[in-house]
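SUBJECT: A protein chain and its fold
Encoding: whole-number codes for local backbone shapes
Chain under study, with its fold:
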Amino acid sequence: MGRPRSQEMLGVIVRGKYMRKHAMIGLLAVFVLTGCASESRINDYLTGFQVPPSSKGRVTLPLVVGLLIALPEAELGQPTTPSPPMLEHFAERIKKEIEGSGAITIQRIFPPMTIPAGGISALSLERLRDVTRDSGLAKVIVAVATSQTAQKVQPWPLIETQLFARMDAAVVDIQTGRVLATEFGREDYVLGQNRSYNAFSYPRLYYRTFTFAGPFTIVSGDPYQALGEAAFSGAADQLGMKLRQQLNPQYAGT
């Protein structure tokens, strides 16, 4: 014997409310993740510092600082993980961008540092003081390099790997323990490969807005290292440019 029609209608209404509720939760989650992605995450890695209410700090110019790049252990072992020399190369790119205004000087680039696990709360004030003690510098830019990869579905035998690279940074005062400013840079590139033996003009590397058709660069060495270098180089350039614009607004348009 079937249920009365009134009970069936009630079930439809309840299920409809349930589905709308979970749809709204999913929509809210998207907005929250999008909002987080547009801000620097550097405060997640710092501990023992006084964090300002706003990421847009005020710093007295001219400014002389050191620069340190940290890499979480969670990044190690991935085919796109930058080598220590490559991290130093990224530091040089950041230095070039920041010093473009002439009012900020990076006096010393410290050797890259590996921090435990995912790096959360791994950069303590005491540790940064130890690392920078011999430099005589009171202020340091500390940046954390992280990444995520995604496979893009393509017809056989093509395969696309997209790398999302980030560099989150803070200008910190080692003497007072204050965070003076925070910023981030991010970029992503795509590696296109062909599973066929001796495929012509593969693997190829291209910007996220392009496709297999190009424009692209044909990779002659390790394709994954080339992907990591391209994405992290872009993130480093963005970070340096945005820090320069924030610390010296006079050059915001350059």
